[in-house]
Amino acid sequence: MDISDLLRSGFIVIGEWCLIDGELQLSANASAELERSHAVYVFREGLEILYIGVTLRALSRRMKNYLKPGASQRTSRRLNALITERLHDGAKIEVLAFWPGRTDVGGLPVDVAPGLETALISLIRPGWNMKGAGKRVPLPQVPGSDLRADSTYWVYVNDVIRKCRIHKSTCPYCNSGRGLHGGGDRQSSYWRSFVDRQGATDFAENVGHSDVRTCTHCGG
Q: CA–CA separation, 210 vs 104, rounded Å?
């Protein structure tokens, strides 16, 4: 599968990354489409597919994360650096997007976009998607360098039932990333820590799971 297959399937070019006064910008040629949500998007240079992502929010909001990523947005910071480096080398990097819609299975609603992103990454293996896409590399548990003492918000991710929950660190269901029973990370679920609620929310909304909410106990 290559870029021509994606274009035939309905992906459209919505813009191009560029540098203005040394800062990354998105020159959009389909501004109305940028306000649509539940999209699978692609960064490409010529025939090469560099990166595949998904967003359940308006696509414009996801693209803004790449322009000026926050300190906790590690993926956005990494991609900002990669895009900027390529542009300095004279590359032309376009953004394509596709909105696959929703369906139902057994009468239950299903958001197609996250599944399509996973399938495309597995088929194409873009160079900018982390190796072993779809497989989580767990963070160390307390004590550990990635679990910060000043973390006030945590996100619980369950890859089996595809949900994310935003917790305050003081929540008994969070227990500073250890969980209700103190087990911490498991094979199909894990915790991520953040110093502010915005960072936790941005992460949770971009994991790709359809069920994203704050904890009903602590209010996240």
A: 13
